[in-house]
Amino acid sequence: MERTFIAIKPDGVQRSLVGEIIRRFEAKGFQLVGLKLVQVTRELAEKHYAEHRERSFFAGLVEFITSGPVVAMVWEGKGVIAASRKAIGKTNPLDADLGTIRGDFGVDLGRNIIHGSDAPDTAEREIALWFAPHEIADWKPSTTSWLYE
Ligand code: IDP
Ligand code: MG
């Protein structure tokens, strides 16, 4: 089964959106297999956003992501990587459709509430970066046969 890395950024935590975001993933039918509150170090932030190292917004992005606690999660399910990106919405909250997390709750590009892995290889890299193997739970929800044919 596919897994993805999801992080509620410091703005989402400060704005009390943790419960609402987890509710949306649960209600869709995805399974929570990893969850922790993290005070992100500069080293972790720079590794996580390594692909943006050369961009003008990189320093501000690292500053922001280390500015308060982040809720780091691993979610599992059929098609969870693409479905999460759809549920999260476009990077700029003003371009994100209503009904998406960024579209419903955000305004500014630099305060877009949530991160989600964008492809299978990045999901694998980000899960390994943020979670130790023992922090991920293999468990079988009792609802599986009601979610999957
Ligand atoms: P994504 O989060 O939708 O995958 P990316 O392009 O990977 O978007 O950018 C990573 C994060 O960097 C964004 O979520 C946003 O917080 C921030 N970011 C991207 N572009 C800009 C920008 O032009 N100005 C400020 N922050 C940006
Ligand atoms: Mg990205």
The proportion of strand residues reads 15-25%
Alpha-carbon distance between the termini? 14 Å
Tally of alpha and pi helices: 8
Question: Gyration radius, to the nearest Å?
Answer: 15 Å
Low-pLDDT runs of 5+ residues are none
Overall structural class, as computed from helix and strand content, comes to alpha+beta
Order of helices and strands: EHHEHHEHHEHH
Overview of this structure, please?
There is one protein chain. The chain is globular. It has helices at 10-14, 18-28, 42-48, 58-65, 80-88, 101-105, 120-130, 144-147, and strands at residues 3-8, 31-38, 70-76, 114-116. It contains 8 helices and 4 strands; from the N terminus they run E-H-H-E-H-H-E-H-H-E-H-H. The chain has a 4-stranded antiparallel sheet with strand order 2-3-1-4. Inosine-5'-diphosphate is lined by residues 52, 57, 61, 91, 109-110, 112, 115, 118.
Write the layout of secondary structure elements.
Blueprint lengths: L2 E6 L1 H5 L3 H11 L2 E8 L3 H7 L9 H8 L4 E7 L3 H9 L12 H5 L8 E3 L3 H11 L13 H4 L2
Antiparallel strand pairs: 1-3, 1-4, 2-3
The structure holds inosine-5'-diphosphate and magnesium ion (MG).
The site of inosine-5'-diphosphate (IDP) has 9 residues, from loops.
